[in-house]
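ok so for the tutorial part 2 we go from a plain amino acid sequence to predicted structure tokens. step 1 is just haveing the sequence, like this:
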Amino acid sequence: MDPQPTRTRKVIPIVRQPNPVPAGAAASDGGEEVMVSLYAAHQKIYPRSVSGLFSNWRWGMVFLTQLVFYGLPWLEWGQRQAVLFDLGARRFYIFGLVLYPQDFIYLTGILVISALSLFLFTAVAGRLWCGYACPQTVYTEIFLWIEKKMEGDRSARMRRDALPLSFEKFWRKGGKHLLWLAVALWTGFTFVGYFTPIKVLGLEVVQADMGSWEVFWTFFYGLATYGNAGFMREQVCKHMCPYARFQSAMFDKDTLIVTYDTERGEPRGKRSRKADPAALKLGACVDCSLCVQVCPTGIDIRKGLQYECIGCGACADVCDTVMDKVGYPRGLVKYSTQNAMAQHWTPAQTMRHVLRPRTLVYASILGTVVVAMLVSLSMRIPFKVDVVRDRGVMARIVSGGNLENVYRLQVMNATESAQNYQLAVSGLKGISISSDSMVSVESTQSRWVPVRVHVPFDAAPAGSHPIQFEITAMDAPGKLTEKSVFIVPR
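step 2 — the prediction. this is what the tokens look like for a chain of 490 residues:
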């Protein structure tokens, strides 16, 4: 089986139709070409409910991810929201950590860790992210559960859709869409709650006093969830998600994928439970097509690895159920590798090959980046300082024969308590701070402080001279040095 996912589509060739030839006219060159679309019309997919090991894992991830997403904004840390990205104040609160725009390097580190994790998981076991934790998969599962409760399982939904509009059909479908909208809008509200304190946001909703951007993003995110999980579903995975397109670059023949045991299953065919498949010269596959019916993207896993497969394992669950009913061993559809299937490896041999140099390199790089991030965070000085020379005040001679430059220092306190900072300056002979050198900043706040710096008149020739500001935290360990220049007028 080739590791490159194959596309399954109905191809309709160009049809050549003969032209009618009027009586007495000479025959033409044979006909005209009619262009026909290469893509078959999309057919709605009705996924069948399934239970089993992988279904339980998938629902476990649904509960875990939504518990984190919906619950995290309501947690408090001290007197504030535990996780809050306050764009207006340009501060990000993550439990006891307060980050400023100057800490952008940590966001870069998180993105690098996410990318490496995706590479590692894909090389080990294919599209685990897609099948179990992707928001598209998670919300589609939630919406399908609501749909099942309101309209019944697959066969009932198909029958109802084929019937004309009736009162029962109207209230069942209408109720389903109302529940979908409720979940979607609550999702949009929660999303905005990560950027506006969610309790304040809730009060604004009750008082109908939400800001314009809050209204926009609540409805935008909510309607996107409603459309993607309720209507587009597998189309997002098949046509919009770029991951489906480049996944083959991260697959090889030792990657765990959901695969069908062709050698054991073929030739497939229906038979009674008491029939001997060997006598009928049939394989283990009873050709029930349940693996197609439970697939959320509507593919047939028996045709091999396809780019539409999200690795959810639903087909493996339902196939094991069928094998139990007919009395055959499980595992006709299972997680395995192409090499394991071809060489008949045991599970232990398969796992040994899964832990190959490629995955070990990914894991080593990922571990190194994570450790570096943690060390950097632990050694991070919990305050920031920006130095801006005040261009509105010219360098001048002041009383005592000194030269004066004025600066503005922004001191940002990234701790949860008020802090005092001592300012000092160096870089020129006799340089000193003539204004107050002690600065107090409230917890998680920033403060602009004007600072006047003096040097003796003859300390340096005319021009620009480098100097350094030293800022020392008095109530906690930490010291920063920021560069600037001192201007000596001609």
